[in-house]
Amino acid sequence: MNNMQDFSGKTIVVTGGASGVGLALCRRFGRAGMNVVVADIEQKALDKAVSELASSGITAIGVVADVTNAESVENLAIKAYEQFSKVHILCNNAGVGVKEADRKIWNLSAKDWSWGYSVNVMGIANGIRAFVPRMLESGVEGHIVNTTSFNGGCIAFPTTPIYASSKAAVTSLTEVLYAQLAKESKKLKVHLLFPGPHMVNTQILASQRNRQAEFQDEVKVEDYMTMEDLKKSALGANIEFKLTEPEEVADACYDGICDDKFWIRPYLEDHQQMISARCDTLIKNLNPVVM
Question: Which UniProt keywords apply (predicted)?
């Protein structure tokens, strides 16, 4: 276990914290005694989440934050530090899924790409830029947790080009952050969270509800993904369709931080085989395996 064994009285910031994995993280670390800063773009969901946490005896505040906007994330950091003076854990968790399983990569619009990358990749970059300098300056023992996905973070499902490629970027940038902070500070640890091992039962299915005006297309795809869309993503990769609950992911994250693991990833044998097959093509300079 790492040297930050006692979470009590310390502070965690979670983006995308009003629902799904984000809210489960707020609950889990809140139960460990942490002050919780819940960040989300959706005011109504944010108010409900903070109210629920407070009713459970957790000290929590809510901050409306759009992770695609650097100024908004900077404001989140300002408010977190004003309220609690230090931040010990940052969970860059906000993410979206584009309804893309029925479309080819060449038919996805520029705004689809821009939205997916602005949330899934730039959202994390903005979090790093706003919080890491402050965490270094304050000298805290702390943790940065970036949420990726097996889809893209390890192998790419061919049904989800935007989502998979954005999560591949998250994996790469987090490995870089790990390497740079290893030389910069022994106090700040970096972790890569893979929700799973199965697809997670979250509101990412309804991501479109918060799609900002600047990312809207003139020709709209149906607003919401359905469970059938999610199944198509899984079946395209020949993976058995099951669901993991957000609370399981939060427990894995908590344990991973305590055990100082960079790769916080639940294991399934079929996942291991897919990773091995991909790595084999790299090592032996073979063509990709088509799923």
Answer: Oxidoreductase
- How far is 100 from 49, CA to CA, in rounded Å? 29
Check which CATH number belongs to the domain holding 20 and give it.
Answer: 3.40.50.720
Number of domains in the chain: 1
On the question of pLDDT at 241 being above 80, the answer is no
- Residue pair 67/119 in contact (Cβ under 8 Å)? The answer is yes
Residue 199: phi and psi, rounded to 5, are -60, 140
Could you tell me if 13 and 89 are in contact, meaning their C-beta atoms sit under 8 angstroms apart? yes
- The answer to whether 193 and 145 have CB atoms below 8 angstroms apart is yes
The domain of 257 spans 11-283
Q: Which two tokens stand for residue 89?
A: 């854990």
- Report the catalytic residues: 163
**Residue type present at position 136:** L
- C-alpha–C-alpha distance, residues 50 and 216, integer Å: 29
Residue 219 belongs to a domain: yes
Distances in Å between the Cα of 121 and the Cα atoms of 68, 115, 162, 233 are 9, 10, 11, 20
Residue 2 in any domain: the answer is no
pLDDT in tens, 257-269: 999 999 999 878 8
In a domain, 4, yes or no: no
Reported as a single tens digit per residue, the pLDDT across 161-203 is 999 999 999 999 999 999 999 999 999 999 999 998 777 776 5
Residue 194, class by beta-carbon neighbours within 10 Å (0-12 exposed, 13-18 middle, 19+ buried)? buried
Phi, psi of 19 (to 5 degrees): -160, 170
